[in-house]
């Protein structure tokens, strides 16, 4: 009989002695108990087991979380599939006759408290150092509890470190306010024993012992199969891998430069959602298959096939990782160019750009255009089609080469030089992302009087009037008759080659002899 006893983590579920538990679906069977209240009261034995445990985990994997919650392999399979939620409750639709019931014969009461500390984003080569510093500081938390009072003594270096991470609380305790800083977390930790109550009256089930109902009624159907540890590990690896992909994508989404480019934001968000949908779809399938395996209606191969099919799908580890590599490269390339031309105004789209260049003061406008960013993505389309049960094609994401990057940064440096040379109240500079396959990578659009006159401005010439800086202190006027015409003739103005532009500037200018001349350009 001892070998048939099951031990499961309560996971905040409302277990009571004598109640039934369906081990096939890992859920409580409500409103039924094997014994009446008097029998339970007369035969219940209570033992006091005062203890506490303090653990630190720097991993965010399902394995580490399951270990902290004492979730064994079979329950973990249900937890991964979504059959069991940490805040789960009984399903009132379960009937005893449909289940493979066990009876609750023992309960360990207590409470769990989890303080999750998150650091601000750090560079990859600093992650290990940050983890070590955080671990060393968090390890000191029990030492700050001096006879139930907080004695928080930190060095200046430790105080600086606490400013770099935040805290979230999860647990069985109801706190007056949830901690968000390290100091608040320490205060909450020190006060936990009081929240249990003097007699532990606020404690909740932590661990539950179950025995099969067959020992009471031999005709009750029994559990036939359990999920093997090897298969549970495979399921765990797949779901953790998908979560890591979503987390990688989120790291790119929170990059400041991504927020300035809606097209980048859109494709990254779409990828993240598709991964989430696929993970939910996997879990939905597992919810159907796991009970059938336990009842002996199906074997584990049916679940293994689903895991193997993933590697042939658009959601394989290789394809998801490759797509993220390419997008992370795109983000880095955009960031590198934007760093060269800081303080230039971003415009979200073509419409906003037109509004800016048509503004009365924007006589001359230059816009650095990222021409390769677009919302259409064949890889994402394949992922969507796969989820919809449609045939998905084969496509590869484009990785930006070093040569391509060099061309774009060279253009950004030249754009910056022109911006420095041509600063003036009538000249505006912008940055935008507009798809233009004629000029792959990046291009510079030149606008005059709101009209696009060049989609690939080479910046090899300067208009003749740019050689006379004093002009920018005056007011240029546009000649309406010539507004829509350009001339290809080249003039020589100062030390610059310049193109004859269809604008007339009239200003009063003093020459070196002190006389006054009217200049027209």
Shape category: elongated
- Low-pLDDT segments: 88-98, 467-521
**Which strands sit side by side, in order, in the main sheet?**
1-9-4-2-3
Instruction: Estimate nothing, just give the exact number of structural domains.
Output: 3
> Count the strands?
18
User: What gyration radius follows from the Cα positions, in whole Å?
Assistant: 34 Å
Class of secondary structure makeup: alpha+beta
Number of helices: 14
Let me know the largest β-sheet.
5 strands, antiparallel
Return the average pLDDT rounded to an integer.
80
Distance between the termini: 102 Å
Question: Which band does the percent of strand residues land in?
Answer: 15-25%
Helix content: 25-40%
Helices and strands, with pairings:
Blueprint: E1 6-9, E2 19-22, E3 27-33, H1 37-43, H2 62-68, H3 73-81, E4 101-110, E5 113-119, H4 127-138, E6 145-146, E7 149-150, H5 156-162, E8 165-171, H6 182-190, H7 192-196, E9 204-212, H8 229-253, H9 262-294, H10 301-310, H11 317-340, E10 345-346, H12 350-357, E11 364-370, H13 378-387, H14 402-421, E12 427-433, E13 442-448, E14 451-454, E15 490-493, E16 496-499, E17 506-510, E18 516-520
Parallel strand pairs: 10-12, 11-12
Antiparallel strand pairs: 1-9, 2-3, 2-4, 4-9, 5-8, 6-7, 11-13, 13-14, 15-16, 17-18
Model description:
- By secondary structure, the protein is an alpha+beta fold.
- It has 3 domains: 2-215, no CATH class; 250-460, no CATH class; 461-521, no CATH class.
- Helix content is 36%, strand content 19%.
- It is built from 14 helices and 18 strands.
- It has helices at residues 37-43, 62-68, 73-81, 127-138, 156-162, 182-190, 192-196, 229-253, 262-294, 301-310, 317-340, 350-357, 378-387, 402-421, and strands at residues 6-9, 19-22, 27-33, 101-110, 113-119, 145-146, 149-150, 165-171, 204-212, 345-346, 364-370, 427-433, 442-448, 451-454, 490-493, 496-499, 506-510, 516-520.
- The strands form 6 sheets. The protein has a 5-stranded antiparallel beta sheet with strand order 1-9-4-2-3, with no helix packed on it. Strands 10-12-11-13-14 form a 5-stranded mixed beta sheet, sandwiched between helices. It has a two-stranded antiparallel ribbon with strand order 5-8.
- A hairpin with a 4-residue loop joins strand 2 (19-22) and strand 3.
- Helix 8 (229-253) runs antiparallel to helix 9 (262-294).
- The longest helix is centred in the middle third of the chain and has 33 residues, at 262-294.
- It is elongated and about 95 Å long.
- The model is unreliable at 88-98 and 467-521 (pLDDT under 50).
């Amino acid at each position: 009989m001892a070998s048939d006893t099951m031990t499961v983590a309560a996971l905040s579920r409302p277990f009571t002695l004598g109640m039934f538990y369906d081990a096939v679906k890992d859920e409580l069977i409500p409103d039924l108990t094997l014994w009446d209240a008097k029998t339970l009261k007369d035969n219940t034995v209570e033992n006091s087991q005062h203890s506490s445990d303090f653990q630190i985990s720097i991993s965010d994997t399902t394995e580490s979380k399951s270990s902290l919650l004492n979730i064994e392999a079979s329950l973990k399979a249900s937890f991964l599939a979504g059959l069991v939620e940490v805040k789960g409750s009984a399903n009132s639709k379960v009937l005893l006759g449909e289940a493979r019931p066990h009876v609750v014969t023992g309960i360990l009461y207590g409470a769990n408290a989890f303080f999750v500390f998150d650091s601000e984003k750090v560079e990859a080569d600093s992650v290990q150092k940050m983890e070590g510093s955080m671990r060393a500081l968090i390890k000191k938390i029990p030492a700050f509890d001096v006879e139930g009072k907080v004695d928080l003594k930190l060095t200046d270096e430790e105080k600086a470190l606490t400013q770099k991470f935040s805290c979230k609380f999860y647990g069985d305790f109801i706190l007056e306010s949830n901690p968000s800083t390290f100091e608040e977390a320490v205060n909450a930790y020190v006060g936990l024993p009081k929240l249990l109550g003097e007699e532990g009256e606020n404690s909740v089930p932590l661990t539950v012992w179950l025995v099969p109902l067959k020992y009471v009624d031999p005709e009750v159907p029994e559990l036939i199969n359990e999920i093997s540890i090897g298969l549970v590990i495979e399921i765990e690896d797949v779901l953790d891998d998908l979560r890591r992909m979503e987390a990688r994508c989120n790291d790119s989404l929170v990059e400041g430069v991504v927020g300035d480019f809606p097209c980048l934001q859109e494709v990254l968000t779409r990828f993240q959602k598709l991964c989430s949908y696929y993970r939910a779809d996997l879990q939905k399938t597992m919810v159907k298959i796991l009970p059938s395996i336990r009842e002996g209606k199906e074997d584990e191969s049916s679940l293994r096939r689903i895991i193997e099919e993933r590697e042939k799908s658009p959601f394989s580890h290789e394809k998801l990782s490759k797509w993220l590599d390419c997008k992370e490269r795109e983000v880095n390339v955009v960031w590198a160019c934007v760093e060269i031309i800081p303080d230039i105004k971003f415009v979200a789209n073509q419409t906003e750009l037109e509004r800016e260049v048509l503004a009365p003061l924007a006589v001359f406008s230059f816009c650095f255009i990222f021409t390769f960013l677009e919302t259409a993505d064949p890889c994402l389309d394949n992922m969507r089609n796969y989820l919809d049960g449609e045939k998905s094609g084969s496509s590869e994401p484009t990785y930006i080469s070093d040569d391509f990057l060099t061309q774009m940064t060279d253009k950004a440096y030249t754009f910056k030089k022109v911006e420095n040379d041509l600063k003036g109240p009538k000249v505006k500079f912008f940055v935008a992302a507009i798809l233009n396959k004629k000029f792959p990578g990046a291009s510079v659009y030149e606008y005059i009087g709101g009209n696009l006159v060049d989609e690939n401005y080479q910046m090899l010439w300067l208009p003749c009037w740019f050689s006379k800086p004093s002009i920018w202190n005056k007011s240029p006027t546009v000649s309406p008759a010539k507004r829509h015409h350009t001339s290809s003739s080249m003039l020589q103005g100062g030390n610059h080659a310049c193109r004859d532009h269809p604008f007339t500037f009239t200003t009063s200018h003093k020459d070196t002899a002190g006389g006054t001349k009217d200049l027209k350009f």
